[in-house]
Design goal:
single chain, 324 residues, alpha/beta, Rossmann fold, UDP-galactose 4-epimerase, domain 1, 2 domains, seven-stranded parallel sheet, three-stranded mixed sheet, 11 helices, 14 strands
């Protein structure tokens, strides 16, 4: 029989890439969606897998729907990728962010404990949990958390609840502490897509400039299509554990902008970029760079797509999209 996987956040960025990866491994994939009047399948369409997924209705903020769903499916693996994941929005909607990212994970874990305790569970944790803490300029599995946003705080709760269910109830539960990972289907509100879409618009004569916040913030950016492999590998190990996943290389927002303009043959990027205080965070995280050594050694995982290749891929995809 085929293995079954339940993927929450199936309409986002990581969900489609993970679903495609699992489908290629002959899984039966269930994609959880909230009850929308008109769900947006654009990202799944982009990867050509929309019709290959079985869609199921449930909501992380509605525990009864999760209890029903887990009892019905008894999935071999559960990948919780759903979240309110836009950091800036978490300052404006802290309660919604907490209900979804914190309590939603608790509801899902409790559903697994009650109705499918053999299901393996993956929790999408984030580098934003580290905030300003680091060890010699990088973050690994032993770096203490110091979140600097409601988003980061909500994810810390989910991280420790995942650990607690592993230790208290022997659930096979793992945290993937993923650093920034991007792709052509990244949400337009995130700085990478905002930059690549803006550069594409400048290339096509649709815009004259891009307005950004902090250009000096440093992040460890990788390709989402690479990172979903690490999620899968975590659940294939003999014992559950937590892993930091990233490239180990940091780039500033300024580097991101340079790479995007380089992709269209423009070197004088300063002429097209304006800083706007509206896009500054109330509490900034200046630098997040992973030490992914544990993932390399234990999982045998390494990223394949470089930072420059990723940004070029995204710019070209945005140009193609806008030409349509």
């Amino acid at each position: 029989m085929k293995k079954t996987a339940l993927v929450t956040g199936i309409l986002g960025q990581d969900g489609p890439y993970l679903a495609k990866y699992l489908l290629e491994k002959r899984y039966k994939v269930y994609g959880m969606i909230r009850r929308y009047s008109a769900p947006n399948f654009t990202n799944l369409d982009y990867l050509g897998i929309t019709k290959e997924i079985d869609y199921v209705d449930a909501d992380l903020t509605d525990q009864s729907s999760l209890l029903r769903l887990i009892k019905l499916l008894h999935p071999d693996e559960v990948y919780n990728l759903a979240a309110q994941s836009f950091v800036k929005a978490s300052f404006e909607q802290p309660v919604l962010t907490t209900n979804t990212n914190s309590l939603g994970v608790l509801y899902l874990l409790e559903s697994i404990r009650l109705f499918s305790p053999t299901s393996k569970f993956y929790q999408a944790s984030t580098s934003e949990m580290f905030g300003t803490n680091h060890t010699n300029g990088i973050q690994d599995e032993n770096t203490p958390f110091h979140p600097r946003s409601p988003y980061g705080v909500s994810k810390v709760f989910a991280y420790w609840m995942t650990v607690n269910y592993r230790e208290a109830y022997n659930i096979f539960a793992c945290n993937g502490v993923l650093f920034n990972h991007e792709s052509p289907i990244r949400g337009i509100q995130f700085v990478t897509r905002k930059v690549t879409d803006g550069v594409a618009r400048i290339k096509l004569g649709l815009e004259k400039d891009i307005r950004l916040g902090n250009l000096d913030a440093i992040r460890d950016w990788g390709f989402a299509g690479d990172y979903v492999e690490a999620m899968y590998l975590m659940l294939q190990q003999d014992k559950p554990d937590d892993y930091v996943v990233g490239t180990g290389v940091g780039h500033s927002v300024k580097d991101l902008v340079k790479a995007a303009f380089k992709a269209i043959g423009i070197s004088n990027w300063q002429d097209y970029v304006k800083q706007d205080p509206r896009f500054m965070r109330p509490a900034e995280v200046p630098k997040l760079v992973a030490n992914p050594e544990k993932a390399h050694k234990v999982l045998g995982w390494k990223p394949k797509v470089s930072f420059e290749e990723l940004i070029k891929m995204m710019v070209e995809a945005d140009i193609k999209r806008l030409k349509k």
